[in-house]
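Researcher: Hi, I'm a grad student and pretty new to this. My advisor asked me to get structures for two proteins we've been looking at. I'm not sure of the right format, so I'll just paste the first sequence and hope you can take it from there.
Model: That works fine. Here's the first sequence with its structure tokens right after it:
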Amino acid sequence: MGPAGRCLLCGLLLVALGGMGMAGEDPQPDPKAPCANWMGGAPGYPGHNGLPGRDGKDGRDGEKGEKGEQGEKGAKGDSGQIGSQGAEGPRGFPGTPGIMGMKGEKGEGAFIHRSAFSVGLTGRVPHPNVPILFSKVFYNEQQHYDVSTGKFRCSVPGMYYFAYHLTVYLSDAKISLYKQDRAVLFTYDQFQPNNVDQASGSVLLHLNAGEEVWLQVYGEGANNGVYADNINDSTFMGFLLYPDLDVH
């Protein structure tokens, strides 16, 4: 209680007491006058806390702040594991056809560089030291092998491959492959009684136009076991591998 309240309380007490006094006594003091002789009482105990007040209303949103500066770039993280392959997607639609290209120029000499033959025997070779006549023709489209002479005549200069596989029966056989009257390959087969042997050979040769290649048995007549019948073939073949660069 403040001083003004205490003085008011003191005045009320005096008025009450004054009503009980004698006439002629001093008039009652003014309750509004300060009480100089009032002694304060002992302080009271603090009051209990009041109940919590209700929450106030939400305040208004503040103004948008300025954009902050960009932070430093962080360290690169570890690479993740490779995921499993996904399912195959559906097939796409066909694309539009492209523009047709220009027609190419016709090649020169596409068929000029062909040269090949494959021939065989029709019976025993009767004479040694002469070209063997292979009269059974398997392939001779360019007619570069002459069945009347038994010789192949070069029409396209270049590198050629020649091979022969001959049946040997009843006697030994000595065979030579000739190029231009010179033997370049020799094969000898010694006949074994009650047996049918094979004599074979192959070679690469460069030929110029007009050069000839053939096979023949060399030696005496006893060395003439080259043989052929309806179940045993003796064959001779050759073909052009590639022509010379200046051939057109």
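Researcher: Oh nice, that was easy. Here's the second one.
Model: And its structure:
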Amino acid sequence: MVERIIIGELRAWKTKISRKPLILRGARQVGKTTAVNLFARDFKQYIYLNLETARDRNLFIQYPSIDTLIQAIFFEKEKLLEEKDTLIFIDEIQEVPEALSMLRYFYEQYPQYCVVAAGSLLESLFDTKISFPVGRVEFKVVRPFSFQEFLLAMDEGNALKQYHKIPMDTFAHDKLLSLFHLYTLIGGMPEIVLSYAGSKDIVALTSVFDSLIGTYLDDVEKYTSTAGQTQIMRHAIRSVFMEAGNRIKFNGFGNSAYGSREMGEALRTIEKAMLIHLIYPTTQTGEPFMPDMKKSPRLQVLDTGMLNYMAHLQKEVFGTNDLNNVYKGHIAEHIVCQELLAHQISLLHKPLFWVSEKKDSVAEIDFLAYLDGRVIPIEVKSGATGRLRSLHLFMDAYRGNVAVRLYAGEIRKDILTTSSGKNYTLLSLPYYLTGKIGEYLREFAL
């Protein structure tokens, strides 16, 4: 099994003095259950409850008292009640909304046990009568494999050492770039990555992709209450892969006749299920940067490998020397965003992008990302540094003096000057170091 980034976060959570029950968010099939099973090795005792099974589900339905519930759980699973070093994992918690309410009592009355829950579409599936344990639970998110986790799964030990070395050796560049292209091609869904690691056969992944995407389509009924809504949702899920990387409008999304209200509701529901992210722009040049929800968002789907498969881009990605040449640069931007999100455990922040839509200065910065408490503009672009007009415009107005460019080349640092005479540092990094931006900035630019 691959040691996920989330495992380190779980271990840190375990050692907190005032530890609250933890809810893991994430789309289906991203490895939430596997991650907890790995984490369970740190405990003397592990109790797994899957609320999709009637036997485990009935425990929470039959025993509304926390004292009785605890005793029933330990009795049913043949575990020792007095063993404090116990992990209790409540999987598929959305199947019993009452179980969510019970988390507060685990926190208040049985803090000696580590309690983790996982579920999907929590915001939409819970009845409004259910009391959400505000302030008594924590949240973390599990996403597809990062490039770091991909290297581990592929048993690329030397490449992984170079990835972690700051700065890496120049001789490792070509191999890491090639491996990052492979990662971009097949994506980071655990089942896909592990299947490829075993077979090294991209063609054999066809059935795995079909099964994976079919699972999401089969889940549609859980998000809807009428046949009409089901039809809209199915259209939305199929269409997001064709529209990924683009700025979208809800009205007529996916060449449909559906209006803004219908498609907006469908896409926001899919976002709650964490199958997509709607990345909104900001027009501000000073903090705090706020998304402008009135403007068209950029569509980010769960996984670039799934996007390549559904949009028939696999051959183009496979044959390129520079990801920026594929799909008008959208694939490079998409995988960079996926990497930025993979290293963002919190649900509170997601990347923005910056736009200036004035008649005399239309410009766009690919990402504004929070790193070490500051906002760093990030461009995903090949070519000469002198062609970064949008970045110059932004840096002229922004109080910061550091920016990042991600591209196919090697690590370099430049001092650039805007048209108004402001100097700023541009740190250029290869795509595969997206997850290391913070460390390289601290080493070379901050």
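Researcher: Is there anything I should tell my advisor about the second?
Model: You could mention this: The mean pLDDT is 92.
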